[in-house]
Amino acid sequence: MHPYLLSFIGGLLVGTAVWLLLMGLGRVAGVSGIMAAAIDNPRSSAWRFAFLGGLIGGGLLFARAFNIAAVTVTSTPWLIVAGLLVGFGTVVSGGCTSGHGVCGLGRRSARSLVATVTFMVFGAVTVAVVRAIQ
Amino acid sequence: MNAQTTVRSGVIATLAGLIFAAGLALGGMMDPRKVQGFLDFGGITSGRWDPSLAFVMGGALLVSLLTFARIRTRETSWLGTPIKLPNRRDIDIRLVGGAALFGVGWGLSGYCPGPAVASLLIGGIDIVCFIGAMAAGMLLARYWMRRGDAHEEATE
Questions:
Q1: How many CB pairs lie under 8 A apart between chains A and B?
Q2: I want to staple B137 with a disulfide (CB 3.0 to 4.6 A). Which of A84, A91, A133, B25 is the partner?
Q3: Do B78 and A15 touch (CB under 8 A)?
Q4: How many alpha carbons lie under 13 Å from residue B74 in its C-beta half-sphere?
């Protein structure tokens, strides 16, 4: 199967997870918001830990099934810097690729459109700078 | 929530997480090289651009648009709980500034929160460091926002 078709089907599955969580629990499947609320407020986050558990277990299961090896694109110190930026930035802006990019755009939210364009542009500029330095 | 609803919500949420992970894995999004390959727009002209992420986003958005278009007619979920949608409409410096910081971290690492969490058990110490730093950044942001003005929380 063509890899782009696989990617599209993968996207349909991500959308299905969004549908299931919204119809089933009435919740928006934004990973950054779910994780931040879970670690900040663990006692009232049973469903959040269940979702994160499914994501982690599924990641292991499907990485094995599809033969996906772990790769990192930068050194450990830079990964820590990047992790801090991703964690801080997504909570301050209220969403990540799933919360703003998939759910927010799906709701046709102007806020999410602005956020998505912004993180795409800054991501692209960062990759361009990294490629220029390397 | 009573015990039965708690168990059912746990099952549905776990299933949603599993399907989410399957989509990320199948779509190639657990590979940070493919994410950087998409963000490398300079590669469009040289032929090394990887549009995979656009196909994943497209597929996910298609289902999401249909879902949210139909959800307006519903008031409660299958479990009878209220449907909670973000209600903020303002575009402020936190939205743009936060998204910019996230974009820089995303570009540096090729990881956004979903694929990072899904990679926790396959990525070794590097991904554990990334997720630990991400968790610290999240708690720092929530602390900082609580200390600031009484800004309405609308994390997604």
A1: 516
A2: A84
A3: no
A4: 21
Closest CA to B24 of A33, A47, A62: A62
Q: Which chain A residues contact residue B65 at CB under 8 A?
A: 105-106, 108
Residue closest to B24 by CA, chosen among B122, B130, B101: B122
| pLDDT for the residue numbered B145 | 93
How far is C-alpha B125 from the chain's CA centre?
22
Q: Inter-chain contact B138–A32, Cβ cutoff 8 Å?
A: yes
pLDDT tens, A57-78? 999 999 999 999 889 999 999 9
Rounded distance, CA A82 to CA A57, Å? 24
Exposed, middle or buried, B127 (CB in 10 Å: 0-12/13-18/19+)?
A: buried
CB A53 within 8 A of CB B9: no
Residue of chain A whose alpha carbon sits nearest to that of B38: A124
Instruction: Give which of A68, A9, A128, A59 is closest to B38, Cα–Cα.
Output: A128
Report the Cα B73 to chain-centroid distance in Å.
Answer: 25
Residue range B3-54, pLDDT digits in tens: 888 899 999 999 999 999 999 999 999 999 999 999 999 888 888 999 999 9
Chain B residues close to A101, C-beta within 8 Å: 57, 61
Cα–Cα nearest to B11, from A12, A99, A49, A28: A49
Interface test with A, best of B1, B11, B20 (most A CBs within 10 A): B20
Rounded to two decimals, the ipTM of the complex is 0.97
3-state class of B141 per DSSP? helix
CA–CA gap between residue B9 and residue A49 (Å, rounded) = 11
CB–CB of A19 and B97 under 8 A?
A: no
Q: Where are the domains of chain A?
A: 3-133
